Amino acid sequence: MRYYIIAGEASGDLHGSNLIKGLIAEDENPVFRIWGGDLMQAAAQKADATEDILVRHYREGAVMGFSDVVAKAGKLIGNIRFCKKDILEWHPDVVILIDYPGFNMKIAEFCHKRGIKVFYYIPPKTWASREGRNSRLRRYTDGIFIVFPFEIPYFQKKGIPFTYKGNPLIDAIDTYKYEKLSDKPYIALLPGSRKGEISRMMPVCMEVCDRLQCNMIIAGAPSRSASDYEPYIGNRKNVRLVFNRTYDILKFADAAIINSGTASLEAALTGTPQVVCWSTSAATYFIATRILRIQRNIKFISLGNLCLDKGVFRELIQDDFNADNVTAEVTRLLEDREYRSAMLEDYAEIRERLGGKGASRAIAKAMKDALLNV
């Protein structure tokens, strides 16, 4: 079958690559065309290295928040137009959308109106905001595939059919071959994959590093280069920037400072005590809290905390994200044994709720069966 898969971020690239591996295992003759990243491209090329697989790399369209959307509006519109044209010319059996709702919801509507099947893998987080998208999910998709247990009662209540086969991160974490990067104790820093995230996280975290006089290893995002981090690192000898080793960095760290996102769940699954930090522009924060009313709908922004509906680890958001608070929380993570132990116990429960191994292949099989109407 011909699979056209669209992911717009690093996390989508990870999940997309594992899904592609599952589709290869379930389909004898899969053909792929993708919007994604290096991981998806490498996985798809194992099915057919001669095919022109990668249409656009996700770094060409990644945006962060309302202000970034406005700044890049022209480019995004151009990408959407090109994507529609490319889909029509390629004639896929199904278009699989992975997260990235601002772009992918438009593609879902376009495909539906032209009789092209649409599967949404990791659909928009309508349980947090913009519930109006639920009607479009019903209307424009032929199946949604969720990956978090707390989404089950939500979509049941909304009357939206879904498939849940567990969370694919467990396979990614458990099959990874870990290697130590340092014999010295260190703090892991995962400042995000977008320039806006990095520019907000790095100055504060470098101040924290100076105050604690600790070693720190920064997990460089695959879509970024050293030049995105080096101006903030300066001449610090105790700070190291490493690319393509995020799981190694997390696994052996004494604690982690993490920008909210998939990385916070990865830290929970690797067993790394963490504090989640997030801030954005005043305009984006205003929209998130007032117009989208996120704070009214959910208590937490981190996936690990959402899985248990409790504060497993602390979230320092917007004004609370400052050097004083981060320093105090990291110190507690390092020195308070009871605090660390309680967090690790909750991590075990998070893992249990996410289900067992084999989620990516199970999802791939469910998609193939749906296409064959089995």
Q: In summary, what is this structure?
A:
The protein is an alpha/beta fold and 374 residues long.
The unreliable regions are 63-71
Shape: globular
Sheet bearing the most strands, described? 7 strands, parallel
Report the portion of residues in β strands. 15-25%
Using DSSP, what is the number of strands?
13
Figure out the total of helices.
Answer: 18
Content-based structural category: alpha/beta
Oligomeric assembly: single chain
Q: Give the strand line-up of the largest sheet.
A: 3-2-1-4-5-6-7
Helix content: 40-55%
- Rg from alpha-carbon coordinates: 20 Å
Q: Residue-averaged pLDDT, rounded?
A: 91
Descriptive notes:
By secondary structure, this protein is α/β, with parallel strands linked by helices. The protein is built from 18 helices and 13 strands. It has helices at 10-26, 38-45, 65-71, 73-90, 101-113, 133-140, 151-158, 169-175, 195-212, 230-233, 246-251, 262-270, 282-291, 294-297, 303-308, 323-335, 337-353, 359-372, and strands at 2-7, 31-36, 54-57, 94-98, 117-121, 143-146, 163-164, 187-190, 216-220, 239-243, 255-259, 274-278, 315-317. A seven-stranded parallel sheet has the order 3-2-1-4-5-6-7, sandwiched between helices. A six-stranded parallel sheet has the order 10-9-8-11-12-13, sandwiched between helices. Helix 1 (10-26) crosses helix 18. The longest helix has 18 residues, at 73-90. The chain is globular and about 60 Å long. The two termini are 15 Å apart. Residues 63-71 have low confidence and may be disordered.
